[in-house]
């Protein structure tokens, strides 16, 4: 490992992207993720890369569409309202099977909402915020170190499968400073992008990047191809952290920043003789269903804690599949669940 | 016997889907001839847009990228920034460029993106069956202006060349027409110059081509040509707006 330095989450995303070989960033200012753009504006010229401040989120994602079509690693970042604007491009790029990375440093909504942290874009990210049957790989880091590692990995996954990968953080993760240890060299997978629109050089058939298939049979065939790809990803790219689940009285599920709060709750509860386990999905899609099934018979109940009205909650319920009751505790509007509130909820469920 | 006329190499040997009398085919051919003459097929990327020409990626032999409605200049920006040695052109209609894609075209031009836009203005939405376009003329009947476009209800048609000419980043702007042989030849020269401007790295270039839509205008091809001459050219004057003397 290399040097350990103190950095802000948003800046780490920028640095990680550069280390992953991404030299094309297209963005638009929005709080609380704008430091990514600041970082890229400063660093891209140093590495001969491209930084474009687009006229809108819509334009930024379409610039990513263009750059990815041309075969380069491309990144855009935004926060919730901006990600809503990108949904058109996300759907098109998914259909055209373009590899790229999108960062959403989630803020509270709906509407213009507020600038404080939330996890209320879970549905939008994992269920398809744009039109059509498509999936993105959605990664949910919980520390600045993981933000770095998963950002690098996001580019690899994107290239490996020709898919969009979203890094979903929140205002806490984007804004906080933590020590991060960068590797001396990143593992970057090498993929031949012989499908890219980078010029035929008159020595091959022309390449076409498109998301339109007017013939219904071709459109269905393409959809089936996408679904087959999603199945492959679902069976090989699931990431999950399981902590303290053996013999747990209750298993709490949380992702991102909230999972760290839950980890503190685990030690608080232990002092009161309550065994709390944690299942932290790192890939929100593909969702680690089997991990929930594996432990479904262990606890008396499940609890999901989120900064929203209960979104991952639905996926946990589906994964547990009625074998245990699943409870929910959440805060919204930029309010953050406290350790005490979570512990109180656990005690209420366990009636202790 | 010497060959006096042949299909440009940059144009695929397939039949096009355009309606009889539509001038898209002529414009495609002009672009392909220019690509051949400049010998840039191997490094050219075309950006198809949304409208009747959504699938013109099937007609060109260079690499092609299909873009969402109005977003071709943003997609073109991404393609060009990724590989600045490529030649990038967008092919957009009036609904695509002057309505839903207004922000993208204005800012690509303002940034002086080294791309070329061929803007086809036929004063109507073709693909969706004849609705009012931003370039629909006053009193023109369309399916969404069944009583004719009125200033009071629908406002004025947009003159794109004049609008974009105020931007420093747009260095070559010309309006042409494909209604007769003379104008077709002028159109080709303008398209060629626009590509040369890009090759010389000068900035953003755009050629607006006045075009016919006999199907949605409800006219036969000859009448459509006459309608273009009598109605469109007076409102959309032909000529160079910027960059006539640009050294390329």
What does this structure look like?
The complex is a heterodimer of chains A (352) and B (248). By secondary structure, chain A is of the alpha/beta class. Chain A has 2 domains: 4-236, Thiamin diphosphate (ThDP)-binding fold, Pyr/PP domains (Rossmann fold, 3-Layer(aba) Sandwich); 241-350, Rossmann fold (3-Layer(aba) Sandwich), CATH 3.40.50.920. In chain A, 40% of the residues lie in helices and 20% in strands. A 7-stranded mixed beta sheet of chain A has the order 3-2-4-5-7-6-13, sandwiched between helices. In chain A, strands 10-12-11-14-15 form a 5-stranded mixed beta sheet, with helices on both faces. Chain A has a two-stranded antiparallel ribbon with strand order 1-8. Chain A starts with a strand and ends with a helix. Chain B has one domain: Thiamin diphosphate (ThDP)-binding fold, Pyr/PP domains (Rossmann fold). Chain B is built from 9 helices and 7 strands, in the order αββαβααβααβαβααβ. In chain B, strands 2-1-3-4-6-5-7 form a 7-stranded mixed beta sheet, sandwiched between helices. In chain B, helix 3 (94-100) crosses helix 4. The longest helix of chain B is centred in the C-terminal third of the chain and has 19 residues, at 181-199. Chain B is globular and about 50 Å long. Chain B starts with 23 loop residues before the first helix and ends in a 6-residue tail after the last strand. The A-B interface holds A 24, 26, 50, 52, 54-56, 58-60, 62-72, 74, 88-89, 92, 96, 197-203, 206-212, 214 and B 41-45, 47-48, 54-55, 57-58, 60-68, 71, 74-83, 86, 103-104, 106-107, 111. Strand 9 of chain A pairs parallel with strand 2 (63-66) of chain B.
């Amino acid at each position: 490992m290399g040097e350990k330095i103190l950095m802000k989450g948003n800046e780490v995303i920028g640095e990680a992207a550069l280390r992953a070989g991404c030299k094309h960033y297209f963005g638009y200012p929005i709080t609380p993720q704008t430091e990514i753009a600041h970082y890229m504006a400063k660093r891209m010229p140093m590495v001969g890369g491209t930084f474009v401040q687009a006229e809108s989120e819509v334009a930024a994602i379409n610039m990513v569409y263009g750059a990815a079509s041309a075969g380069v690693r491309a990144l855009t970042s935004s926060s919730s309202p901006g990600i809503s604007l990108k949904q058109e491009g996300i759907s098109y790029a998914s259909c055209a099977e373009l590899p790229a990375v999108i960062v959403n440093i989630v803020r509270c909504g709906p509407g213009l909402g507020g600038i404080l942290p939330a996890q209320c874009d879970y549905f939008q990210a994992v269920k398809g915020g744009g039109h059509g049957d498509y999936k993105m790989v959605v990664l949910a880091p919980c520390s600045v170190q993981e933000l770095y590692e998963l950002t690098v990995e996001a580019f690899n996954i994107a290239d490996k499968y020709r898919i969009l990968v979203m890094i979903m953080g929140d205002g806490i993760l984007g804004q906080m400073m933590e020590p991060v240890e960068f590797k001396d060299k990143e593992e970057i997978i090498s993929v031949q992008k012989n499908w890219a629109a980078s010029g035929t050089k008159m020595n091959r058939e022309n390449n076409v990047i498109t998301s339109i298939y007017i013939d219904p049979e071709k459109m269905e065939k393409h959809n089936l191809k996408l679904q087959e790809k999603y199945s492959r990803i679902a069976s090989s790219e699931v990431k999950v952290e399981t902590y303290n689940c053996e013999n747990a009285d209750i298993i709490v599920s949380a992702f991102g920043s909230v999972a760290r709060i839950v980890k503190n709750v685990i030690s608080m509860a232990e002092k009161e003789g309550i065994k709390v386990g944690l299942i932290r999905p790192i890939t929100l899609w593909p969702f680690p269903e089997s991990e929930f099934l594996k432990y479904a018979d262990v606890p008396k109940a499940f609890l999901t804690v989120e900064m929203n009205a209960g979104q991952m909650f639905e996926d946990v319920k589906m994964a547990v599949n009625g074998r245990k009751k699943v409870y929910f505790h959440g805060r919204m509007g930029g309010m953050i669940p406290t350790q005490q509130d979570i512990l109180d909820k656990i005690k209420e469920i366990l009636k202790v | 016997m010497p060959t006096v006329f042949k299909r440009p190499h940059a144009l695929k040997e397939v039949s096009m889907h355009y309606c009889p009398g539509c001038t898209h085919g002529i414009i495609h051919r002009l672009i392909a001839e220019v690509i051949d003459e400049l010998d840039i097929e191997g490094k050219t990327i075309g950006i198809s847009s949304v409208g009747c020409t959504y699938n013109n990626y099937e007609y060109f032999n260079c690499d092609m990228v299909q873009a969402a409605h109005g977003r071709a200049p943003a997609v073109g920006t991404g393609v060009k920034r990724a590989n600045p040695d490529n030649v990038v052109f967008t092919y957009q209609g009036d609904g695509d460029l002057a309505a839903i894609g207004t922000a993208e075209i204005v800012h690509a031009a303002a940034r002086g993106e080294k791309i070329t836009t061929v803007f086809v203005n036929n004063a109507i939405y073709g693909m969706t069956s004849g609705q009012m376009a931003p370039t629909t003329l006053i009193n023109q009947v369309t399916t969404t202006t069944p009583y004719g476009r009125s200033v009071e209800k629908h406002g004025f048609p947009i003159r794109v060349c004049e609008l974009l000419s105020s931007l420093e980043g747009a260095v070559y702007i010309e309006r042409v027409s494909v209604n007769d042989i003379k104008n077709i030849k002028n159109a080709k020269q303008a398209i060629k110059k626009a590509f040369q401007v890009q090759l010389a790295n000068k900035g953003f270039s755009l050629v607006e081509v006045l075009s016919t839509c006999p199907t949605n205008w409800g006219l036969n091809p000859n009448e459509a040509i006459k309608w273009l001459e009598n109605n469109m050219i007076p409102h959309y004057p032909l000529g160079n707006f910027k960059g006539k003397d640009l050294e390329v």
